Each structure stands twice: as C-alpha cells, then as structure tokens.
Amino acid sequence: MAETAAFESPLSEPVLAALYKMARNGRPLASTVTRRLVKRLGVDSIAVAEALRELHRAGRIRYAPDSRGQPVSGYIDVVLSDFAVPPHQAAWQIALSNAGFNAERTDVLLGLSGKLHDMNEGDMAVLAVALKSVSELVLSDSCKSDEAGFNFSARRIMSGSKVLSMLSQKMLASLGLPPRLHLSSPRYLIYAGPAAASTTLLIENPRAFENAVQAGLAQSMSLVCTYGFGIAYIGQDWLHDAQSSAHDAPIILSRLGTAPSFRDLLTAKDVLFWGDLDVAGLAIYKAYASSLPTLQLSGIYHAMTSMLESAETSHPYCALFDKAGQAPMARSLANSQEVSTAHQLFRLCTARAVDQEAVSFEDIMTFGSGSYTSG
C-alpha cells in the first residue's frame, strides 16, 4: 500500500477513513455524503467541504465537482488501492482499545487521530487512559460539574488546557462530558451604559462598539461588544437556569458605567444585534437568536441598507475586503427560501456588503435605539 500523504486539513484523514468505511457497503452518494460525514464525525459542513476538496485534489477520492470543488451528483469513489491507514491512526486505535474503550466509542474518538500525527505511541497511551479516566470521573461524586473547561482539561489530561476544546461535540458526548467543557474560558466582554436600561445592544466588533460609545448611545442603553461569535455558545438553559455554572458566563469589563449581571443584560426588555451587513453577520445573528429567540436586529441596519445602493459606500465579496470566503455563502443565501426579517435583510447583501464601522456617529444615534423593520 502507498504511504498516506500529509494533508493540510486535519480532518482529511478522518474523512478519508470514514469514506473508506462507507465504501465497504456501496459507493457513497454525492448528494448525501456531506450530511453523513457531518453526522458521523461530529464536525461542521464547512470543515467537511474543505477536506473533500483536498482529498479530491490529492486523487484519494473521485467525483464530479461543482464550481466550488464539491461533489455535485452521482457517486464518490474512494481510491481503495491507494488507501492506507496512517501509522499514527493505527497506534491511536490500539491505545484506545488498550485503555478500555468499546468499539463504538473507539470509532468516534478515532476522529482525533488527525491531531496526533506528531505524538509518539507512549504519549498516545497516556492520553487514551486520561480520557478514559475523565469519562469515568463524570459518573462519580468527585467530579466538579461546574469546573471551567480549560481547568478541567489541564488538571486531568496531561496538563493540557486545550485538549477538550480539540474534541468535537460528538467526541465529548461519547465520553459523557457536558458540551460546555469544549469552551475556552474565561471570556471577556466590554460593556458601556447607564445604571439601568431597558434595551441591550449586542455589537459584533470592538471598533464599532467604541464608535457607538463616542456617538453617545451608551447614555440611554446598554452596549455590549461580543467580538463576533463571542457569546453564541450561551444556551437557553443557562440563561433561564439560576443554578447554571458561573464559569459559562463571560466576565463583563466596564468601558463606561457599572455593568449589571450578564443574565440581566440578556433578559432586558429589548435585546438588539448590530454587526456587519454581510452573510457572516447573518450567521452570527442566527447563532445568538438560537439562544435568544426574542433577539431583534438593530435599526442601524436601515442606514446600512442605504449604503448598499452605491459602489462608493459598499464593497464586493473580494479578498481585499477579507470576504472572499463569504462569496459561496452569499450565493446560497440568495437561493434561500426563508422569509424571516433577518433573511430578508441579509438577502439584500448577497452581491455587496457594508462593514459596521462605516456607519456615521449621526446615524448610530438616529437609528441605534430602535429595531430594524423590513418593508
């Protein structure tokens, strides 16, 4: 068998191994392979797409590609004659088995092998035993269920704080660990606002947050800089369960005024979101809305939609504007049949985008206290 070439994507080897197993039961269909790989490996579709492209370029799999290099129709053929289980993957499988993991859990945890190519067999054995011990620990009374993820990982897995964050959610579940241990911590958010406010505005980027402060918006409402997806991991269970671990809550740092509790900020009468007017901004909004169903779009988007009308106040999805990767998502959004207010707004920016820092202080004050309405 040929030796396995080194791949740039750490997911390429696990994807190839998964495709190899699928191929034993028949040729995988191009139309369903991404969904099956996402479910099997517990990773997102974007990572799977990149792995498929790399494997296709390397000649390890064959299929009819679309313009993005993704399987478009028909079947995917795995080049079985060239497939070889990498030595580190075989060693990891042995380590998991020796540690006492059953076949089902071993199959899930094998997905971690892509990150173990530079680890020797002795350390793999230690790692496998540590993961088994952690798995057993959660069933005992000695497990501190509210412990922060990085602490839990570092104190129990070879002094490595990031180990659990390297595991997929499916791997964590196979170990019986709560999903929150996947999170890095602590997380810091910046706040500005009056002593009490009925409205909270979540702002994607720190410079736009500072612009809102300088414009004077913090005199009448609470402003929170989220740094992109910064608080997207907060679930409804945390928000409404007073017994939830304090480790899950970001630490609020005050830029102006005295911040209330994080829970109070997110349960204000009105909670608004303001980010870039691009398809990535929609992804951030949707991530927050999954935990905050009452989340509204900021009225500042009214000013930004007007800016889309001119090439001088908007830009295409190009590398210069750090948006080349969003172009395929923009095409997908244009074809979406969703009719929510958010999708109606962001469908306006499938060709051109506006960064939130472009909004003037005057427009921030004019539109910042209200919500966006379509029509």
Describe the structure.
With 375 residues, the chain is of the alpha/beta class. The chain folds into three domains: 12-82, Arc Repressor Mutant, subunit A, CATH 1.10.10; 87-182, no CATH class; 188-367, Dna Topoisomerase Vi A Subunit, Chain: A, domain 2 (3-Layer(aba) Sandwich). 41% of the residues lie in helices and 12% in strands. The protein is built from 17 helices and ten strands. The strands form three sheets. A six-stranded mixed beta sheet has the order 6-3-5-4-7-8. Helix 13 links the parallel strand 7 (270-274) and strand 8. Helix 4 (87-99) crosses helix 6 (121-137) and helix 14 (300-307) crosses helix 17 (361-367). The chain is globular, with a radius of gyration of 24 Å. The mean pLDDT is 84.
Primary descriptors:
single chain; 375 residues; alpha/beta; Arc Repressor Mutant, subunit A; Dna Topoisomerase Vi A Subunit, Chain: A, domain 2; 6-stranded mixed β-sheet; two-stranded antiparallel ribbon; 17 helices; 41% helix; 12% strand; globular
